[in-house]
Amino acid sequence: MLAAVVAQQLRPALFVEAVFATSTLYVWSGLGSKTWNGHTWEGVGSLLGVTGISEDSSVEAKNVTLSLSGIPAEVLGDVLSELRITQAANVWLACFHADGTMVADPVLAYAGCIDKPTIDDGADTCTVSIQLENVLVDLNRPVWRRYTDADQKLDHPTDTGFQYVQGIQQITVYWGSVPGAYNQ
Predict the structure, then answer these.
(1) Three-state SS at 164
(2) What number of H helices and E strands is found in the chain?
(3) How far, in Å, are 12, 141, 166 from residue 52 at the CA level?
């Protein structure tokens, strides 16, 4: 893969896997079908757009936008009913040899979760753009779990390790001597 990237002619392609409600979508940025990674990827050519993939030295939750154009207006409802927020989506960068065979081991360029869709509705066709959130976004969300017996039982119903946590909050513990003991 490294040799293909630094070669004089670069023949890149993007492979996109997105999990929907009842199926997983496998498309790539070329034409025709390709078999890779145990799946058949349907070529959508220039109808597929991927924007926002970047790499830098800071740790940030950067989003990527997938867009698929040329969707007939009559199937737009089906597309939206299949979309599930927080489902997984992956984008791979692949390269091809001059004879059209794929270079082994495409690189995972982005892994994230499906977020909100945006629809650009034209007269005959539509473009659906889907934001992909980076998993680092979860670090900005507040934690709703607590160190309580009821919360522990959500994951481990028979565990009794937290049954005294609430009572411990009411106890005053003195290390050493009790305050005021020397004044008597």
Answers:
(1) coil
(2) 4, 9
(3) 17, 22, 47
The span from the CA of 83 to the CA of 72, in Å, is: 16
| pLDDT tens-place string over residues 71-107 | 877 777 888 888 888 899 999 999 998 888 888 889 9
- Closest to 69 (Cα-Cα) out of 119, 12, 22, 14: 119
pTM over 0.85: no
Does residue 159 share a domain with residue 122? no
Q: Which domain holds residue 21?
A: 2-140
Q: For the chain, give the number of residues.
A: 184
Task: Give yes or no: residues 35 and 63 share one domain.
Answer: yes
Name beta bridge partners: 127. 69, 120
Q: What is the DSSP annotation of 120-149?
A: EE-SSEEEEEEEEE-GGGGGGSPP---SSH
Residues 136-146 have pLDDT tens digits of 777 777 778 88
Looking at the structure, tell me whether residues 15 and 104 fall in a common domain. Answer: yes
Query: Do 87 and 168 share a structural domain?
Result: no
